[in-house]
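Changelog note: in this version the structure field was regenerated for every chain. One regenerated record is shown below for reference.
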Amino acid sequence: MEEAWEEFEVSGRVTDYLHFCAVRKEQEDKPDGTECRNDGNCFKCNASWRE
């Protein structure tokens, strides 16, 4: 992921930024292939106080 960001920093091209976003998204996926949700309940956090 860091290499993709550095490539974008140097080039400034939109396509390089989109490539970085794709790489980042792949790394944020859970091992079982499902995405981490941003509703406060995922493998990194559990916001039971929100219920």
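Spot check on this record: The mean pLDDT is 74. Residues 9 and 17 are 9 Å apart (CA to CA).
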